[in-house]
Structures are given as structure tokens and as C-alpha cells.
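Q: what does this look like with zinc ion bound?
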Amino acid sequence: MFRKFTREDIHTRSNVKSSIQRNLKAKLLAQYPKLEEVIDEIIPKKAQIELYKCEGKIQLYLVNGEVLFFQNFDELIPSLRFVHKFPEAFPTVQVDRGAIKFVLAGSNIMCPGLTSPGAKLPEAPGFEKDTIVVINAENKETAMAVGKLLMSTEEIKEINKGHGVEMIHHLGDPLWTFSAD
Amino acid sequence: MPLTNVIYCGVCDFPAEYCEFSGKFKRCKAWLQENHPELYTKWYGDVTEDVSKQLAESSIGDEREEKLEKALEKLERKQQAREERELAKKLSSKVVIRREARTKRKCMIAISGLEVFEIDMKKLSKTFASKFATGCSISKNAEKKEEVIVQGDLADEVEAYIHSLLEEKGMKEVKVEVIDAAKKKKKAETTTTPGSENKK
Ligand SMILES: [Zn+2]
């Protein structure tokens, strides 16, 4: 999603009104309930959320100059910097060591990279198709990417062919290197 | 429930455990050793030979691991070559500050050559506008390259600021050339033919 993103793609920057700010937080919690216990630490009550409207209907939400989450359609997607603060809150899958290089190059993730011995998928029933998932790597503790399931995790195990996760955001992409100033 | 505190590499900005994939691994390791010696020892030990063995204990098997290591080495070489090229390009380029007459009394300053040094021109023009309380804009010059235009006779101030900016970026050696086109034009009217001053 951010492969070609540059500063030029930001159309407008504005502060989010406090009423809408409350709605946003509620929406985040509805999507990621485990954030409940840390949300006020990550987005303090007095913090000002900024909204950057960008090319391609991408909306970035920033707190203290850091992109915390973004939106393309309806769902809110956390940035990796956000994920790193509280990884437990997000559905997570793991790829094997061999897939890391490709993920960091922005490729979609192929099913075998998610089902091999070094990989990890949740036990049944697992996650539905279209779930936003955080992508971890074998022998690593921190997440390296955020993507969207192209099939349910059970289907990934069963079919084990083709693209399993659509890449949205990864370490080293322009969103990762983006700084507000 | 406390927030997790990830250690980001000071060289590649990845979480430090991903440095091996950054293409800057050598410098990353030096940084880690300096800043987080305990992690350095934990991950890379004292003998680098052991590292690859340690890492090879992954699920993908010796053969693929070896291939991966080779690919990562290649990545690093490429990255290094690219950085060297970029540095050479920077060092052989220069910033040009041109003072131009606007009216008989007023003049403006055009700064070109900034793009090579990854200087954000929009930001710079905003800085100049507030710093010098003057009009400042970005426009394309005859070579279709962007330049920053500052209204007013501010060549010296602009030069000093550009120098400090370059120094901040660790590019102190970069040349900044100041061309006084306003003066020359006056001279040109009396002594030389126009056009000869452009050659410089
Ligand atoms: Zn690094």
C-alpha cells in the first residue's frame, strides 16, 4: 500500500476534533479489544490526533508526529510502530526464516511460508479471510509486517498454495521511514 | 500491562534483531556493540563464526540457510556500493546560490542543486520565509530543476544557513558557490557582452 508513498501524496493535514477522536478510539477498541488496557497510554486523553489525508484514499492518523494507524477503507490498520508497542493486541501469524527477505521486499506471502516448520498459524478456528494480521518471523520477537488474509487461516493450511497474505505495510517501506516533519 | 520497548537500530532503524536483513549489517553490528553490548554478545557472541552456526539452527535447513546468507551478503555489497556512489555524487556536486537583480534596487536569491543532498526544499523555503521575514518560493529553473527563490538581498545569510545545514548532514566538504548575477549584469552593461557571464 505504501510502496510508492511520498510526502507529495499528503493532500491535507488537520487536527481531529475531540468528539471524532473519541469515536476513533472506540472504533479501534471495537476492532482490537485487547487494546483496552493500554489505549490511554498509547493515545493519552489529552493527546491531539492528527489526520493526514493522502493520495489513494489513504488516511494516516498521527499522535505526536508518529503514524499510529491508518485507514484505506473502513477498517483501521495499525502501523508497525504501534504494533511494536503492544503486539498482543493484534491477530498474528508467523512466517519461516526463508520468507523474511521477501516480506521485507514487499511481496505478498505465499501459503507455504506460513505452513512450514518455522511458521505458525493459529489453531482452528483461526482467523477469517480479510482479517488484518501482524506478521512475525521465525526466531524473531518483533513484528515485521502488517497484512490482510487473502483466505482464512484454515484454508491456508488446507490449500497451501498461492498467496495467503496481502502485504500492506512492512519494515523499511515508505510508511516505516516516514517522519512527520 | 506495560508497553513493549523495542530497540531500534541506530543505523538501519529496523528493530535490531532484523539488522541482518537491512543490507547494512556490518555497521549495524558496530552500532549494537557500542550501544547495547549485552544484546551484541547474546546475538553475535564474541566469535563471528559461531553466529552463522547459531542462525543456521532455523527450520529452513542448511542449504537454504546458506543460500540466504549469500543473498544477504550480496544485498550488503549492493547497498554499500550504492551508498558509495551516492556519496561520490554528493561530494562532486555543489549548491549554487545566485543573486539576481529583480528591479534596479531589489534583488532575489536563487538556490539550486539542493535535490542531490536530500534537502527538503518545501521545508527550507518555509524556514527562510519565517527566518528572514520575506517571500520565499520554489520554482523550476531553465534546466527544469527546482530551486528555492528568496526575495531580498540575503545571499550571505542564505549561504551561512546552507553551510550549517550541510554540516548537520555530515557533508561539510560540499561546495557552495555564490554567483552574483546582479552585479555582473551591471558590469555587463558597460564592459562585456551578455552571455559571457553565464559560462561561469
Ligand atoms: Zn541495523
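Residues 7-84 of chain A form a domain with the Sulfate adenylyltransferase fold (CATH 3.10.400.20). The interface with chain B takes residues 7, 37-38, 41-42, 84-88, 96-98, 100-101, 104, 116-119, 137-142, 144, 171-172, 176-177, 181 of chain A (CB under 8 Å).
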